[in-house]
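Proteins fold. Shown next:

***
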Amino acid sequence: MKHYLAAITQWTVILFLRFIMMVLGVFVVPFAMPNVHPFDGTKWRLQRLKAKKIFDPFDNPRDGIYGDSRLDFWNTGDQFPKWMADHTWLKCYWWMAWRNPCNNFSRYYKHIGCDVSKCVVKRISGNLYAAIDKRTGKKYYNYISKNVWIGYKVEMKHNTTSWISDPMKAYKDCTFRIRFKGEI
């Protein structure tokens, strides 16, 4: 029971902090956006927010302003809002402020994000898991079932994952997903 209480407390604090950052991001990101250079979308490129410390929490060092490097954000045809033209300032703003807000803050900031490469993932009870930092013992909780995923994006498979080729991928943030149809 104590782990469930610790998990709920952790998720509540992180949800509250992320909410504040997301609201701020709606107003800060427009000032942080660089000039957007249209491209044909066939080859992804990394372009980040302007390099100022105040914009750092809202940046996305892995995907940049153009979205997921797999081009999923642009090319799957199911990303909202569909009426927005791809590769434009407005679509980049949508990605940075609404679709994937405060990414740098939620993944890479100490005590907020989880570097799973420095953790061991264990099942705590039922569907509750925790990535436990090997150095400090801090727990990053995750509850996952067929239709609910709450907490850090950590899974048992991360215990055997090599992060050498892409160390940034080891940083996990909190997610709150509920799906009423299908599975997560």
Notes: The two ends are 25 Å apart (CA to CA). The helical segments are 2-32, 72-75, 89-99, 103-108. The chain has four helices and seven strands. The chain has two domains: 14-108, 113-178.
